[in-house]
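# step 3/5: fold
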Amino acid sequence: MKSLIYPEQKQELLQRIGRVQSTSTRLWGRMSAHQMICHLRDGYRLYLGEIPAEPVPGPAIVKAMIRTFALYAPVPWPRGKVPTHPAIDQVDGTGTSPAEFAQDVAGLGDMLERFTQIPQSYQWKHPGLGPLSYPQVMRLGYLHADHHLRQFGA
């Protein structure tokens, strides 16, 4: 399973991020390529606890089932089926607005580097998925980026 635990998979994501252009066309969804870059950066900031997010209501058992499917099912995430949490929604929420494309891409690379340096003791509570261990957060960090990079053909 791919994960940001592995340096070569972080490098893969960085290379794919480098292929995204401000003019890249989305294959699904509502974000522009530039908004997607800011969305991914905000996602890592959320995972690090730097962006507060209200929990999504729901029973813990349901969150556990969704978490298991989202992190371990051998299929890509569905396109346009899961609503974006408002804290990191660049279209309708309070996500970071795009500024200068190259600078935002560099900022995403820096954030990805910082994210992959968190200690193995790290734990975090995802607003919709519930508690995540270090390996789960690293898997989520990979899958979220992979999903949106595929959205732009990268």
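# step 4/5: annotate
The helical segments are 7-19, 33-47, 60-72, 101-115, 134-151.
# step 5/5: archive (pending)
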